[in-house]
Design a protein that fits this description.
Membrane topology: Multi-pass membrane protein
GO molecular function: L-arginine transmembrane transporter activity
Largest sheet: 2 strands, antiparallel
Number of helices: 23
CATH class of one domain: Mainly Alpha
CATH architecture of one domain: Up-down Bundle
Radius of gyration: 26 Å
Strand content: under 5%
CATH superfamily of one domain: Amino acid/polyamine transporter I
Main location: membrane
Shape: globular
Helix content: 55-70%
Structural class: mainly alpha
Family: Belongs to the amino acid-polyamine-organocation (APC) superfamily. Cationic amino acid transporter (CAT) (TC 2.A.3.3) family.
Strand order of the largest sheet: 1-4
Number of strands: 4
Subcellular location: Cell membrane
Distance between the termini: 11 Å
């Protein structure tokens, strides 16, 4: 029994490194840097730019929404830089799933990939329904009226939608066919729609600055009273609803709350990381694509929000359709049709951006044996993961057709924020490990290190046993407390790598506890309640100590085309932001997340063989040097208990 548990624990914690000596891939390397930038911009700059600015400006920040987008962009850029380094380090498809696999092990990799799949499926279905709804509004609700009259679905519990959305179903199936046909064709369509979207946004920004009035950035309470003249609304009610006036009517709290909402507007750039085996030069194009797309999106959000709040007083904005209302306010009502075209193009690129990475993550997991292996089947002519594309497209289409997705949208946030956090952690850990991820060996292997022994693991289906071929590593130092702050040299060793690994785990626990307190007791903290302030100070000081310990350790001298600056501060701050946003989600979302993880655990055990072996095909060669500590610790605990 102990042996079985030990083998199971080793399986959950095994990691791998990639052999780049053979750069052959089953995918078609046809995507340029421009294609990746367009993919990132199209996926990130969705219909939210046409709606979100009005909602946040009216309800949370006023004209200070421009600062909200600035703060959100800086936070998103931190996550983007971490993805960019991994894109330069690991030119293989799989995104955050693969990054987790090579750094923290199979269990975290499966959790990441499983939740990314859920995020992409829900995202695809929800954007498809939004596209259908937007088009329906243009034709004065004739489509929804017909389906409600003839095919209304009345089911208690709000699980199913009011009516089956046939338009959304057809749209998803059409794009599934486009993705299955070839990646270059999909990239061309994406560039066309993204270009139209950017032209429309440019028109909105220029029009806003031409027709806008800077006085709308410095409104006073008298303006509120004149707006509500003739009503029974008191000044206190106006202050609660519209703030105190000025550039930031809702104060710092409103800006921070708005920034948290605006953070989700920058979600989507991670789809670029799934193109590693389809980019012509992934180690260069992926970092450039991620950073450039985030910068373009920031300037678009910043410009639109500035133009919108100058065209019209923020308290008069329509939260459902702010731009058409703003153009009507300045006397340019026909411009609403231009905005509608841009909105549909934005939804189209956002939909394509949700669907593009979905089959590639499924393919990567299936090829590793973590999902059914049939899903890794490639089309030899189009060079696309054909079965994963069709299956994921059909599932997303059925969800868009039948379900009310409002209650499931927050599940997207968990998957995305979890992936962002793990990528930041992986970047931090790998920069302080000895050696590198590359192997000069032509043979790719899966191996494990437990209790100092090198153990070959057999492939899942073939029964082949993989041998061992280890590079020379620095000698293992004897751990002393002095090494925490005064390492013995400038080159990482296994001991210094283990120190970083353990310290990172500790600081993640501290950050999680701190974020739980901040999410639930923020008001008590702001008023100086000692029972909240003291624990926060202690946790913050412990985090600083951990950061200093990591900072003092030697970094790997491995040359990369892109490296995250300001280690370890930047990745850890990204982790803090992501975990804090996760703690803002309600308990019902976490319950649904738990159910999804139970389903994932059942699927995982269905696909593994009796020895939990994984055949890695042409991908893996394990990183024994990354951190043997976790495998050793698991082994000791399992043997003891």
């Amino acid at each position: 029994m102990a042996s079985m548990l030990s083998n199971f624990g080793k399986t959950l914690l095994r990691r791998r490194a990639l052999d780049f000596s053979n750069e052959e891939t089953q995918f078609a390397r046809c995507l340029s840097t421009l294609d990746l930038i367009a993919l990132g911009v199209g996926s990130t700059l969705g219909a939210g730019v046409y709606v979100l600015a009005g909602e946040v400006a009216r309800e949370k920040a006023g004209p200070a929404i421009v600062l909200c987008f600035l703060i959100a962009a800086l936070s998103s850029m931190m996550a983007g830089l971490c993805y960019a380094e991994f894109g330069a380090r690991v030119p293989k498809t799989g995104s955050a799933y693969l990054y987790s696999y090579v750094t923290v092990g199979e269990m975290c990799a499966f959790i990441t990939g499983w939740n990314l799949i859920l995020s992409y499926v829900i995202g695809t279905a929800s954007v498809a329904r939004a596209w259908s709804s937007t088009f329906d509004n243009l034709v004065e609700q004739k489509i929804s009226g017909f389906f409600k009259a003839s095919m209304e679905m009345k089911v208690p519990g709000k699980v199913l939608a009011e009516y089956p959305d046939l338009f959304a179903l057809i749209l998803v199936l059409l794009l599934t066919g486009l993705l299955a046909f070839g990646v270059s064709e999909s990239a061309l369509v994406n560039k066309i729609f993204t270009g139209i979207n950017l032209v429309v946004l440019g028109f909105v920004i220029i029009s806003g600055f031409v027709k806008g009035d800077i006085k709308n950035w410095n409104l006073e309470e008298g303006d509120f009273l004149s707006y509500k003249n003739g009503t029974n609304v008191t000044q206190k009610d106006l202050t609660e609803k519209f703030g105190d006036g000025g550039f930031a009517p809702f104060g710092l709290a409103g800006i921070l709350s708005g920034a948290a909402t605006c953070f989700y507007a920058f979600v989507g750039f991670d789809c670029i990381a799934t193109t590693s085996e389809e980019a012509k030069n992934p180690m260069r194009s992926i970092p450039i694509g991620i950073v450039a797309s985030l910068l373009i999106c920031f300037f678009a959000y910043f410009g639109v929000s500035a133009a919108l709040t100058m065209m019209m007083p923020y308290y008069q904005l329509n939260t459902d359709s702010p731009l058409p209302e703003a153009f009507s306010y300045v006397g340019w009502a026909p411009a609403r049709y231009i905005v509608a075209v841009g909105s549909l193009c934005a939804l189209s690129t956002s939909l394509l951006g949700s669907m593009f990475p979905m089959p590639r993550v499924i393919y990567a997991m299936a090829e590793d044996g973590l999902l059914f292996r049939g899903l890794s089947k490639m089309n030899s002519r189009t060079k696309t993961p054909i079965l994963a594309t069709i299956v994921s497209g059909i599932v997303a289409a059925l969800m868009a057709f039948l379900f009310d997705l409002a209650a499931l949208v927050d599940l997207m946030s968990i998957g995305t924020l979890l992936a962002y956090s793990l990528v930041a952690i992986c970047v931090l850990i790998l920069r302080y490990q000895p050696g590198n991820l590359n192997s000069s060996s032509q043979t790719e292997k899966l191996v494990e290190l437990v209790e100092g022994e090198k153990v070959a693991v057999s492939g899942g289906d073939s029964g082949d046993e993989y041998g061992m071929e280890m590079e020379d590593r620095p000698l293992h130092e004897t751990f002393t407390a002095k090494l925490l702050f005064c390492p013995s040299g400038k080159i990482p060793t296994k001991t210094s790598g283990m120190i970083v690994y353990v310290t990172t785990a500790v600081i993640c626990v501290l950050i999680t506890i701190l974020c739980i307190i901040l999410a639930n007791c923020l008001n008590q903290l702001l008023v100086g309640h000692a029972a909240v302030v003291v624990p926060c100070i202690i946790l913050a000081l412990l985090c600083v100590v951990c950061i200093i310990i990591i900072w003092r350790q030697p970094q790997s001298p491995e040359a990369l085309t892109f490296k995250v600056p300001l280690l370890p501060w930047l990745p850890l701050f990204s982790v803090f932001v992501n975990i804090y946003l996760m703690m803002q989600l309600d308990i019902s979302t976490w319950c649904r997340f738990s159910v999804w993880m139970v389903v994932g655990a059942f699927e995982r055990f269905q696909t593994c063989d009796p020895f939990c072996s994984v055949k890695l095909g042409q991908l893996a060669h394990v990183t024994l040097f990354i951190c043997p500590f976790s495998s050793r610790l698991c082994h000791l605990l399992l043997i003891r208990y």
